[in-house]
Structure formats: structure tokens, C-alpha cells
Write a structure and sequence with these properties.
The protein is of the alpha/beta class. It is built from 31 helices and 31 strands. It has an eight-stranded mixed β-sheet with strand order 1-8-2-7-6-3-5-4, sandwiched between helices. Helix 30 links the parallel strand 25 and strand 26. The radius of gyration is 31 Å and the shape is globular.
């Protein structure tokens, strides 16, 4: 054997891996076969392979990264049945099949770590599998092209594999485009605000046309600016140069007249290139029926543009003999009445073909304009009135019996609550897919200290998201607008500094600040005038201006970046940064106008703005606006946000979170100046930061529930899309079907939570009801011991310290606890019933729970207020607030208390023999109750005022609790949620006639 050069080894490995296909096989045999042809004397030993990996042979590592990642992500492959994807066990199974030794395994793990990222959560009805790995691999021209484009953009193998998995989850639930019978599927894909949903639907489009869908209609926003963004993205990353040119000679200027991008788009060289017209490469062409500048008006080439040539004229278009030779048509259209009316009108003229045409409708921001918002009470008897866009969507679906509908949104509640009984509407009756949070994304948990166990006084830039990124605006701080503008200049200077010191500058092409204070256009004009005036008076080139910036640098940006971005270049002093401050000031103030107002309603308005992030080399501006900046419009380079607008709509508030997104190379520079005491209604004030946190918690809770119930039990889904509305109605009790004469047929009757917290939040508002509930707890309060017990939480990711607290404890029987719980009253009747149904069966019917450890935590001595409750031992009173606009509280149990309780449950589960050793412990058939005496209020004085003569009024406190059942409290079938049909005669129907009241 000779010492094979790395290039020769790369060729052998590439050939061997290609020969294996999608299944890992005995690598030495395949490598020997590959080497026999070109390198018969090659050194194929594992030692040589390992040497190349250790010496950082990037090409070889990249090759193995692609294949190992593909096998890591493979969904239930025959060669690894029962072994979860993206785990050490799956990787070990791959190595076993490759027959690799220990040392080589370690080297590969170091070079290509297992990507431990979650997959998509899929809620689905049963479907007939058709999109097999073999079929996907057989026709993958456009998917492979798109995959190559993503890799060229710097996407990791794990990110591409994750997109592959998520897009496949959509495609396989659509109807088979080749099947003889027409069938429509409707689904919803839920991402995060500005998290890359476009990448997912581009992947879905690529796979759909590869599989045989021949008409794709993308609904791309309500403005041409948004539509054009989507059109360009699809053109650049999927459709490609050859399909855009359509045979035109790139060197012949006359033939390029009317061709998009060539000569006026600097990124044209970056557009996908297929090598030739795809139809000459054994694939098929894509014909664009819309362009970057032109929305759909009418078929440019007449009706012939939608005529498909059949190789076998006697067979339908969906027959494979015809389907895979026909060109695909793609339209990107606005959600605009006249545009969609023209499309419907033209389609009606070719009705004969439409029954044979596999079509896909992708609805971006599907909760905007697409949902029917007309009041059902005003509908004419026996009919369904629809809003314009919803009605036209309904017509499209009628005209295209083989059309599949897939909505995309980050705020799904409007779509989930479309009437599921309206077969002509867009309720996602076939599937709901929640996408995982992508790597590198800045979302809610990057701006909020959600569930942080670190006391507020111990939080630093290094351990607190809030301290790092949030700058409060309240009465004590003033409006901080000048500071926000200074932060914008400083952060821009830091981007330029980093660009000059070896950091890739593509993420710094645009640098923006967003000021969002009101929905009113007059207010936008006033704010823009104010900012413009302040900019010209800021003195950014004067000694006073530099002194002000130097102070902000020293107090804010230098310590934050030092703690959060130690791997990025950081100036040693403000003086080192100063030249870049001048450069940033010049960019922002170019044209004498640092501010752009973005609040128009028309395409003409946005054309005049010239705010095109794709075609403008550098946008370094302060944007002032409202709603038009909150829907689908990606504010590139957004670094500083000044936000003071209030709204009562949860989904509207979430969509305005433009500060969410990807911030490569400048995460540490992101700042959110946000109102903490904004006027709201009459004599009310809103804390916008807390409002966002509450919304984020609701949404995350919904996602967590979907993930929990998505687990298939005995081959059957625990929950289908039809059952999602009543599930969400647990969070939002006022939700009902749109038609007043209907009700949801699915009723949530049981939620099982073995080893997981149960924390109801909808406690009564009425004082008399509160008093009755408090009196029902009296028998259990007597079980609390006089001597407090110590609990501790060891160091973890949240803190390097051991944290301790004291609590009064006692043990109560399961029967006594359920007796109390079953008598409690709630603000929304039935709120606790699904949990109570579960708990009531833990006396031996479903599982056996013997007793519960009752824990009444004591607060720190410095803030402790104690009082007797109906003659009990003195209990610590805690302050909690109900969420704005809701009857429910936020989190009841503190993080430290809940962590300690969960540790008890987890330790008991792992030690079935019973308690051993020191400290608080429980047995495997014991649950934990955290019990709080809650005073509703805004300050510590409210808690003190609740105590009189060492006791508290039982009508003025809420006995709130968090339960954690033992992990063993589950049935053998592992089912966690149970529904029943209110009307069993219509078990498969989503809604049924309402019962007479």
C-alpha cells in the first residue's frame, strides 16, 4: 500500500459513498471496489482516513459531513428502525453498518458532531404514503439545485438536512400528483417571525414540481414590494438563469429586452445556473407567468400559456407519461382583488384542463387578508358571505380540484380558528406543521430572561438577555430617543470596524433603525420630523457629540460586546472606533436625509421610496412607520428598535416584533428601546416588554403542547388538525366556531401529565368565589409542619451557585387532594376539567399515586410577609399579576421552586426502590404540590396591606398551585391527550349543529 494522496482518497470515498446510495453499508468493500478502477494501490486503512480527518482535510470532512448528516436525519429508515434521528444511538448504528473502529469513530465525531436540533412538530390526519425516499431521489432536479444554492450561501449540512426534513413533511401529506382520483389537501406551516419561512416554501416548491405539480401559485403579500421580494428570491434560488432567459443570448443585448435582472441587478451572477435549459438535461423547464416588476394581469401569451402539451394525447395530464415532460408554471401574485379576479377569470376559460392539473397554492402570511373576517351573524340565511380575498381563494380551490393549499405564518391562531366545518375555506384540515427554531435565530428567548433562576440583582450582561438587549423607556428615563439614535451610529461604526478587521461584511450591507410609536400617519410625520431635527443637532462630528458617544460606548457597547462577542474584533478604546463613527454618520446621513417614513398603502408610494434592500447597495437609514413595517416586510440589517406602540391584538403585537430574526456578526449590537409605561385606554398604562413576554409564553406553550401530543401511539395520531381548535381554546376560552349555529365537535376531555407540571392560571375574580375556594383548602393546610424544610438546587446552566430556599411541608393522601381539587371553582367553568379527569384516575384506575408532598415556599426574609389563612400556620404571601387583557395569571410557581419540585419527581423516577441518602426526597408513587397564597397587586405594599392582625382575608387571596404527578402516573398506552365527539353520529365532522340552549 502506498500513502495515497488526499485528493485520491477523496475521489475513492466520493465514489464509494455515491455507490451506497441512501443506506450506509460496509465501507471497506465499497471503497475497495471504487479504488480498483483508478487507485488499485491506494491505502484504504482506517489509520490513513483518520490522519486526513485529524489534519483537517476540509474537502474530505465536508464529504462525510453531508453523508453522516443525511443518515443522522433519515426518518425511520429500514436500516435503523426504532432508533431516533439525530442521536448518538443513530450515529452508532451508522458506524456499525459502515463497520468503523473506535478511533475512526472518535475522529469523525470530532469532525462532524451529531446535530442535536429538533425536527418539525407534525399534527396530521392519516394519509396514504406516496413520497417515498426512492421516488424523491428519482426526481430531484430542482431540489438538488436549490440544495446546492443553499450550500453556496453558507448553509451547514445540518441546516440543509433540517430543511429537507421539514419540506418533506409537507410534500408527503399533499395528494400524489400522479393519482387518478382528484383530492385536495390543506395544511398550515407555522414558523417564527422572520425566521426563514420563505426558505421552507421554496424547498416545498422545488420538491413539489420535481414530484409532478405543474402549476404553483404563490400568494406573496399585499404590496408589490413584498411580492417582488418573493419573486426575486424564487427566481434567484430556484428558477434560475436559464429559465429566466428562456433561450435568449446573454451576449445579445437585443434579445435581452424585457428580461429581468440582466444588467440591472448586481446579484445576477449569483442566480442559480443549471448548466443548460433543464428540458435539455432530462428535466423540465419552468415558465414564469409573473416577473419581478409585473404582477399577474392576464396571461401574457394568452390562454396558451396554460396549455400543456401531452406526449400521450389520449391520457390525462396527471398521467406520468405526460406529467414529467410538461413544463411547470409559477406565478407570484399579490393578495389583491383585481389580480386574483383576473387569474380566476383566465382559469375559467380553460376549465377542461384544470381537472387534470396538479396545482399547489402557497399562501405566505396566510393569516393576513386570506381569512374570512365577516361577522357570521350578518350572513344571509343559508349562505356564507366571504371577504374579497377569501372568496377568490375559495374560487381558486373550486376551479382546481387537484390544488393543494399550504399556508405559512408565524401567528397561527387566526388560521387555526377558521371554521373547520366550512369545506370551501382554508382551515388546515390535513396537517399543521410547527417548524423548529432555526440555528442562529434571535427570538423571544434572546430578548427575555424566560424562566431564569438568577435573581435580578445578580444578572449581568453575560447571563441576562434583558440586560444585554433591552433598554427601558419610562417616566424615570425620559424618551431616550437621542440615546437610541446614538446607539444606531455606534453600532454602525462597530460593523464597519469589524468589516475592516477580518469579519465578513455581507451581513453589514444594510444597517437600519426602526422607530415604531403609533399607527397614525400624522404621528409618523411628526416623529420623522423630530428625528431629522435631532439628527442635524446631534453634533456627531463635534467634540460634544463624540463625548456623548464615548460615554455610551463605555457604559453600554464596550461591556456588552466584551461579554457577548469576545470572539469578534473589539476596539480597545473609543478613540480607535472614532474614524468609523464618522464613516457611519456619513452613510446614514447620505442625501441629507437620515429618515425614511414607511406608511403608504399603494405600490406607487413604495416605488417612490426606493426602499429595495435587494437592489440598493447600502440602506443605512432610520425607518419610521407602522403596520406596513410589520407584515412580511423584512427590514434588513435591523439593529436598533425604538418601540412604543400599543395594541390589543396578540398576533398584531407579535408581527410587529421586527427585532426578531438573524443577526450574524452583530447579535451583541442589537438593542430594543421599549416602552414600559405607555398610555393605554383611559387611565391605563401598558408595559410593552411584559406584553411581549406574555404572548411569547402563550405561543411557546402552544408549540410545546403540539410537540407533546404529536407523538404517535400505536400507529395512530393522538391529535388531528380538527382537534387543535378546542385544544387552543384552553388558552383562549372565548374562541368559538365562526358560525353561531355551530360548535366544535371535538371536545378535550383529558390531559395526562406524568412527571410534568400542571399549572392552571384562570382563577376566579369574584371575592365570594375566592373565599369559597380558600375554605376548601383548609383541611390540607392543617397538614403543614411547623418546622420549615430546606430545599436546594445545585449549580446548573442558569447559575454557578447552589441556590436554597425554605418551605413548610406536609403529606396528604391522593384521595384528600382530589377531593379539594374537584370542588374548586374557576373563572372559566371547565377550565381544569381535562386535568381533573386525569388526576381522578390516579387512585388505581389508570395508575396508582399514594400521596402528595405539599410544599408552601417561604420567601427570603428581607421580603417575606406572612399571615395565617383560616387559622393555619403563618404562610408566606406572594404577589402575582394577571396578564394584560386576560383573567389568567402569568407564571404561578417561581423557577427555583419548580426546579426543586421537578428534581424530586425526576429523582424518584430514577430510584424506584424509594428514597435514599440525604435531603428532601419522595417515593416513586408520590406527587408534589407547590401551594402559594397569592395576593393580586402591583407592589410590595399591596401584599402588606392584605395582612391584618397576623391573618389575611380569605376573600382577598388566591390559593394557587402547581402540581407535578409522579412520572409513573401514566397508562401502558402512553396516550397523553383524549378527545371525544360531542355528537358521535358525526364523529369525523369538525363542527356540528349547536345544541339548543
Amino acid at each position: 500500500m502506498n500513502c495515497t494522496p488526499a485528493t485520491g482518497l477523496l475521489d475513492i470515498h466520493a465514489s464509494a459513498l455515491a455507490g451506497m446510495g441512501s443506506v450506509p453499508r460496509h465501507f471497506a468493500k465499497w471503497a475497495t471496489l471504487a479504488a480498483d478502477e483508478v487507485h488499485p494501490e491506494a491505502d484504504l486503512s482506517e489509520e490513513r482516513f483518520r490522519e486526513c480527518l485529524v489534519s483537517e482535510n476540509e474537502e474530505l470532512a465536508a464529504l462525510w459531513s453531508r453523508h453522516l448528516t443525511s443518515w443522522d436525519f433519515a426518518e425511520e429508515p429500514q436500516w435503523a428502525l426504532g432508533i431516533p434521528a439525530r442521536t448518538d444511538e443513530r450515529r452508532a448504528a451508522v458506524y456499525d453498518r459502515l463497520r468503523f473502529g473506535t478511533d475512526l469513530r472518535k475522529a469523525l465525531d470530532a469532525a462532524v458532531p451529531v446535530a442535536r436540533i429538533p425536527g418539525p412538530t407534525v399534527i396530521t390526519r392519516e394519509f396514504t404514503p406516496w413520497y417515498t425516499p426512492e421516488r424523491a431521489a428519482a426526481r430531484a432536479f430542482y431540489w438538488k439545485s436549490y440544495e446546492g444554492k443553499l450550500r453556496a450561501k453558507g448553509w451547514s449540512d445540518a441546516a440543509i438536512a433540517s430543511l429537507d426534513e421539514a419540506s418533506r413533511a409537507v410534500i408527503e401529506r399533499l395528494a400524489d400528483p400522479e393519482q387518478p382520483a382528484a383530492r385536495q389537501a390543506k395544511g398550515l406551516v407555522v414558523g417564527y417571525v422572520q425566521s426563514g419561512k420563505t426558505a421552507n416554501f421554496t424547498g416545498v416548491t422545488a420538491k413539489a414540481i420535481d414530484a409532478g405539480y405543474r402549476l404553483v401559485i404563490v400568494l406573496g403579500g399585499t404590496l408589490n414590494l413584498l411580492r417582488a421580494q418573493t419573486q426575486r428570491r424564487l427566481d434567484m434560488e430556484l428558477i434560475g438563469q436559464e429559465n429566466i432567459l428562456r433561450g435568449a443570448d446573454i451576449t445579445d443585448l437585443d434579445s435581452l429586452v424585457g428580461v429581468d435582472y440582466v444588467g440591472d441587478d448586481a446579484d445576477w451572477p449569483e442566480f442559480v445556473r443549471h448548466g443548460a435549459r433543464p428540458s435539455t438535461l432530462g428535466a423540465f423547464d419552468i415558465e414564469r407567468l409573473t416577473t419581478r416588476g409585473n404582477d399577474y394581469k392576464s396571461l401574457a401569451q394568452g390562454i396558451r400559456a396554460l396549455e400543456f402539451e401531452k406526449r400521450e394525447p389520449t391520457r390525462p395530464l396527471h398521467d406520468p407519461a405526460n406529467l414529467h415532460h410538461a413544463a411547470a408554471r409559477i406565478l407570484v401574485v399579490k393578495k389583491n382583488k383585481s389580480v386574483l379576479t383576473n387569474l380566476v377569470k383566465d382559469l375559467k376559460q380553460i376549465r377542461g384542463l384544470l381537472g387534470e392539473l396538479p396545482a399547489l397554492i402557497i399562501d405566505d402570511e396566510s393569516d393576513q387578508a386570506s381569512v374570512n373576517t365577516l361577522d357570521p351573524k350578518k350572513w344571509q340565511q343559508g349562505s356564507t358571505d366571504r371577504t374579497a380575498i377569501n372568496g377568490l381563494l375559495s374560487q381558486l380551490l373550486k376551479l382546481l380540484p387537484r390544488a393543494q393549499y399550504v399556508g405559512y405564518t408565524a401567528t397561527p391562531f387566526a388560521n387555526v380558528f377558521v371554521d373547520p366545518g366550512d369545506a370551501e375555506d382554508i382551515f388546515p384540515s390535513d396537517f399543521l406543521i410547527s417548524l423548529p427554531r432555526p440555528s442562529g435565530y434571535m427570538g423571544a428567548q434572546d430578548f427575555h430572561d424566560l424562566d431564569s433562576a438568577i435573581p435580578r440583582h445578580e444578572r449581568t450582561y453575560a447571563n441576562s438577555q434583558e440586560r444585554t438587549h433591552i433598554r427601558d423607556i419610562d417616566e424615570s428615563t425620559g424618551d431616550r430617543l437621542q440615546e437610541a439614535m446614538d446607539a444606531f451610529v455606534l453600532s454602525g461604526a462597530l460593523k464597519l470596524y469589524r468589516s475592516d478587521n477580518g469579519v465578513a461584511d455581507s451581513p453589514f450591507r444594510h444597517h437600519t433603525m426602526l422607530a415604531h410609536q403609533s399607527v397614525r400617519k400624522d404621528d409618523h410625520a411628526d416623529l420623522a420630523l423630530l428625528i431629522n431635527s435631532m439628527w442635524h443637532q446631534a453634533g456627531y462630528s463635534s467634540a460634544a457629540g463624540h463625548e456623548r458617544l464615548a460615554a455610551l460606548w463605555a457604559s453600554d457597547f464596550a461591556p456588552v460586546s466584551g461579554a457577548r462577542a469576545s470572539d469578534l474584533p473589539l476596539p480597545a478604546s473609543y478613540e480607535e472606533l472614532r474614524p468609523y463613527v464618522n464613516a457611519a454618520r456619513q452613510r446614514i446621513g447620505s442625501g441629507g436625509q437620515p429618515v425614511i417614513v414607511v406608511n403608504g398603502d399603494s405600490d406607487r408610494y413604495f416605488d417612490q421610496l426606493d426602499l429595495d434592500f435587494d437592489r440598493t447597495s447600502h440602506v443605512w437609514k432610520i425607518l419610521v412607520g407602522g403596520t406596513k413595517l410589520s407584515r412580511g416586510f423584512t427590514v434588513e440589517g435591523l439593529t436598533i428598535t425604538y418601540y412604543r406602540r400599543t395594541t390589543q391584538q396578540a398576533d398584531t403585537l407579535m408581527q410587529m416584533g421586527r427585532w426578531f430574526g438573524f443577526r450574524p456578526g452583530y447579535r451583541d449590537l442589537v438593542r430594543l428601546y421599549i416602552g414600559r409605561e405607555e398610555p393605554f385606554g383611559r387611565n391605563k398604562y401598558a408595559d410593552l416588554y411584559e406584553a411581549y413576554e406574555a404572548i411569547c409564553r402563550d405561543e411557546e406553550s402552544f408549540r410545546e403542547q403540539l410537540a407533546q401530543y404529536a407523538v404517535v401511539v400505536d400507529g395512530q395520531p393522538q391529535i388531528t388538525p380538527m382537534q387543535v381548535p378546542p385544544l387552543v381554546a384552553q388558552h383562549l376560552p372565548w374562541i368559538r366556531p365562526s358560525a353561531r349555529n355551530k360548535m366544535f365537535n371535538a371536545e378535550l376531555v383529558e390531559i395526562r401529565s406524568p412527571g410534568r407540571p400542571i399549572e392552571p392560571a384562570s382563577y376566579p375574580l369574584n371575592n365570594a368565589t375566592l373565599k369559597r375556594n380558600t375554605e376548601r383548602w383548609r383541611p390540607l393546610l392543617g397538614s403543614l409542619n411547623a418546622t420549615p424544610q430546606a430545599f436546594s438546587n445545585p449549580p446548573d446552566n442558569s447559575s454557578s451557585l447552589t441556590r436554597t430556599f425554605e418551605a413548610l411541608t406536609g403529606t396528604v393522601s391522593h384521595c384528600d387532594l382530589v377531593s379539594v381539587l374537584s370542588q374548586l371553582e374557576w373563572e372559566h367553568p371547565g377550565h381544569f376539567n381535562p386535568h381533573l379527569t386525569y388526576l381522578s384516575q390516579l387512585g388505581g384506575t389508570l395508575a396508582k399515586v399514594d400521596e402528595w408532598l405539599l410544599i408552601s415556599p417561604r420567601l427570603a426574609a428581607s421580603t417575606r410577609v406572612e399571615a395565617s389563612v383560616l387559622g393555619s400556620r403563618p404562610l408566606s404571601l406572594v404577589r402575582r399579576s394577571r396578564q394584560a387583557g386576560k383573567t389568567s395569571f402569568g407564571r404561578i410557581a417561581s423557577v427555583e421552586h419548580r426546579t426543586a419540585a421537578q428534581r424530586l419527581i425526576d429523582q424518584a423516577s430514577s430510584s424506584p426502590e424509594g428514597p435514599t441518602g440525604q435531603g428532601a426526597q419522595i417515593g416513586p408513587r408520590t406527587g408534589v404540590v407547590l401551594l402559594y397564597t397569592v395576593v393580586e397587586g402591583d407592589s410590595h405594599s399591596d401584599v402588606q396591606a392584605a395582612v391584618r392582625n397576623g391573618a389575611t382575608d380569605p376573600s382577598k387571596v388566591v390559593m394557587a398551585f402547581t402540581l407535578i404527578p409522579p412520572a409513573s402516573a401514566v397508562s401502558a398506552d402512553r396516550r397523553l391527550v383524549r378527545f371525544r365527539a360531542k355528537n358521535s353520529r358525526y364523529a369525523d365532522e369538525a363542527t356540528v349543529p349547536a345544541m339548543p340552549s
